[in-house]
Design a protein that fits this description.
The complex is a heterodimer of chains A (445) and B (149).
Chain A lengths: L3 E2 L19 H21 L13 E2 L2 H7 L2 H24 L7 H10 L3 H8 L2 H5 L1 H12 L18 H15 L7 H22 L1 H7 L1 H10 L4 E4 L2 E4 L2 H5 L8 H18 L2 H9 L5 H24 L12 H5 L4 H26 L21 H4 L1 H30 L10 H20 L1
Antiparallel strand pairs in A: 2-4, 3-4
Helix pairs in contact in A: 1-19, 1-20, 3-4, 4-17, 5-11, 7-9, 8-11, 8-13, 9-10, 10-11, 13-15, 13-17, 15-20, 17-19, 17-20, 19-20
Chain B lengths: L1 H39 L6 H10 L2 E3 L2 E9 L2 E3 L3 E5 L5 E7 L3 E5 L5 E5 L2 E7 L5 E7 L4 E8 L1
Classes of the chains: A mainly alpha (445), B alpha+beta (149).
Keywords (chain A): Membrane, Transmembrane, Transmembrane helix
Organism (chain A): Nocardioides pini
Protein name (chain A): Fenitrothion hydrolase
């Protein structure tokens, strides 16, 4: 009997079909060696005076571009676009059928969660501009006559990015651990809870809450610091990604955000590995509990290593040691982005195309609203596994280099002169460990 | 200032470029080797097959790979076994089950195998490289991960 191809059956499996092959061991080793060599080369030959200063870095963009980007028309256009997409996909989520071809799932997990990274890399903090949570909160504020952006209280500074870290964890738990992550109902419930929390939070603390607590906005805005777009005293400037990365404002909880983003992606590779799979499947209980514990362990592990590695240095009297982890956390963002590219490249390109096709038929009735229903997915990328593996290793290595340079510049800015080089060593080892660990998971899973 | 940065970074860029060229070289030379091992796996047992052959009963015969899947109530063997397979190389699943059920093959697009109680044979062909999971539903257990090259 031959197997039957089925279109949209429900499965407790996550979105997407085949996954990438493991990268060849030679490539993993080459990437790890490159990361190691580059790290110490940077330490040995790079500059000894800090180069990046948010107050002076960046060239002003051409006037017309600044006027266009800052224009009210563009801001409104982006909000209208964001709301249109939101309402369209929300209709699919509410009235569509509970199948894998409901485009709500692909839009949420692929276009939003993964697509946010390339979009923010290219054009800056894009989610903030289109965020439906922000748009609706602004409309609420307008209707109730509250001054724009203000809430009842001032957002407590000591909360920092902690709420976003919690929100990001809630997302990755839903995506990677929750067994019914591809049923429309629970995902819709998650989104409703997310929107509810954002509305209440922004009513209480104004739009500052959204900038600190909205997981998608925080993620997008952090990745956008690797784009060339920045602002200095309100003027649009073009910066090198390294100079732009230096403008990340350290706030409490930044280390936790970084830990969840990197730890969860590593966990996604780990949970597919044969030893873990065999272990959780031979247990008598469901795999939710061991997976949840492992996800927490990976996220907390990254945050812990980063905390210890940044604090293991001599310090100046004016900067307390416990402030260091958040002051260095920005340098892990490029490592995360490189690893995310490696991890999600095929998934984004191929399942992203699939989602665009599905978006034409939000109610699974055979409609073709957007004219994309008859397009075919191009599987060129998975048909070329060597090209794919080389791109993945290149992305991881490039992310590592940018991270090491960013950490070096921050170290010579913050550390006392006699600890400027030795003080970097623990963090350098931690970064090499992150990169090599990431490569190992790409090789072994 | 940017000019000086570039000169300072030049060694870094060079090392990186050299390393990546090395990667590229490795990758290119590796790819025919992988294909070779795939095509040769039809003659000699594939490496993971021979490693795990005694345990799960996967072996290659003729130009295909065969795996035996056993279901007793809610317990399945094998449990998350890796099996190497070539693109377009048929995988024959011999299913020995004490009750009827369904297996899902998470290729793109997905394939579904319905089996009856007793012993039955089913053939799967994967037409693209990647890792494809063969999963039972109710209860949800991943039986095989096919490494298709």
């Amino acid at each position: 009997m031959s197997p039957v191809a089925v279109g949209g059956s429900i499965s407790a499996h996550g979105l997407g079909g085949a996954k990438d092959l493991p990268i060849p061991s030679e490539l993993a080793i080459a990437g790890a060696v490159a990361a190691l060599v580059v790290s110490f080369t940077v330490l040995a030959v790079a500059w000894r005076e800090p180069r990046y200063d948010p107050e002076t870095s960046g060239r002003p963009a051409p006037d017309w571009l600044d006027r266009f980007v800052s224009s009210r028309a563009l801001a409104i256009g982006a909000r209208v676009l964001g709301m249109a997409i939101f309402l369209y996909v929300a209709a699919a989520a509410v009235f569509g059928e509970d199948t894998l071809i409901n485009p709500f799932l692909g839009t949420f997990y692929v276009l939003l969660w993964v697509g946010l990274v390339p979009a923010s890399l290219l054009i800056g903090p894009v989610f903030r501009a289109i965020s439906p949570a922000r748009t609706i909160s602004m409309l609420f504020a307008k209707i109730s006559g509250v001054p724009e952006g203000e809430g009842l209280y001032v957002y407590p500074a000591r909360l920092g990015y902690w709420p976003a870290a919690a929100g990001l964890f809630a997302f990755v738990w839903l995506e990677l651990v929750y067994p019914y992550s591809t049923d429309v109902g629970p995902v819709r419930l998650w989104c409703a809870a997310y929107l509810g929390i954002m509305f209440i939070g922004s009513a209480l603390w104004g739009t500052t809450f959204l900038a600190r607590a909205d997981p998608f906005e925080v993620y997008s805005s952090l990745v956008a610091k690797l784009s060339v777009w920045g602002r200095r005293d309100g003027v649009l400037v073009l910066r090198s990604p390294l100079a732009n990365l230096d403008t990340v404002v350290p706030r409490p909880g930044l280390v936790a955000v970084v830990g969840v983003l990197f730890g969860s992606t590593a966990f996604d590779s780990f949970r597919e590995s044969t030893p873990w799979l065999k272990l959780v499947q031979s247990m008598s209980t469901s795999r939710v509990w061991p997976d949840t514990l492992a996800l927490i362990a990976f996220s907390a592990g990254v945050a812990f290593v980063l905390t210890v590695a940044t604090m293991a240095t001599g310090v100046r009297s004016d900067i307390p040691r416990r402030a260091l982890p958040n002051l260095f956390a920005h340098s892990v963002i490029p490592i995360i982005v490189g690893y995310i590219v490696a991890h999600y490249l095929t998934y984004f390109v191929e399942y992203g195309q699939q989602t665009v096709i599905q978006l034409s038929d939000p109610f699974s009735r055979g409609d073709d609203y957007l004219g994309t229903a008859d397009l075919q997915v191009n599987y060129w990328l998975s048909a070329h596994p060597t090209f794919l593996a080389v791109s993945k290793v290149a992305a991881v290595t490039l992310g590592h280099v940018v991270g090491v340079v960013a950490a070096h510049d921050r170290a010579i800015k913050l550390l006392p002169p006699r600890h400027q080089l030795t003080g970097q060593l623990p963090l350098l080892f931690a970064m090499v460990a992150f990169t090599v660990g990431g490569l190992y998971l790409l090789f072994a899973a | 200032m940017p000019g000086r940065a570039l000169t300072r970074l030049a060694p870094v860029v060079l090392v990186l470029a050299a390393a990546l060229t090395a990667c590229g070289g490795d990758g290119d030379t590796d790819s025919p080797a992988t294909e070779e091992s795939t095509s040769s796996s039809s003659e000699s047992p594939a490496e993971p097959g021979s490693e795990s052959g005694s345990e799960s009963g996967s072996s290659s015969t003729g130009d295909g790979v065969t795996v035996t899947v056993t279901r007793e109530g809610d317990s399945f063997t094998p449990n998350g076994e890796r099996v190497e397979l070539g693109v377009d190389q048929p995988l024959v699943l011999t299913i020995e089950a004490d009750e009827a059920g369904e297996l899902h093959v998470h290729s793109t697009p997905e394939q579904e195998i319905a089996y009856d109680a007793g012993t039955s044979e089913h053939e799967i062909v994967i037409d693209r490289p990647g890792v494809v999971e063969v999963e039972s539903h109710e209860p949800d257990v991943i039986l095989l991960q096919l490494e298709v090259r």
